[in-house]
Amino acid sequence: MYKFVRLQLLTGAFANTVMGILFLFFPPLLVQLIGFEVATNQLFRLFVSGVAIGLGLAYLWTYITDTDDHSVLFFGM
Known about the structure:
By secondary structure, the protein is mostly helical. The chain is built from four helices and no strands. The protein starts with a helix and ends with a helix.
């Protein structure tokens, strides 16, 4: 079970960070991927990318420090 949680943290860190960077810097690419025009609302795009990158970094920090406190997972849910 412990290895599964660590794998989820690493996967979540990668996926959130990559999607946050895509939302922030490559909005035309996301139109093709998800079919939603994210460039129409700049505030929404900045909010989503900031939250995604923030959670990705929090997951990576939890993975690296190997703490028993996994409360950051509740924010991601």
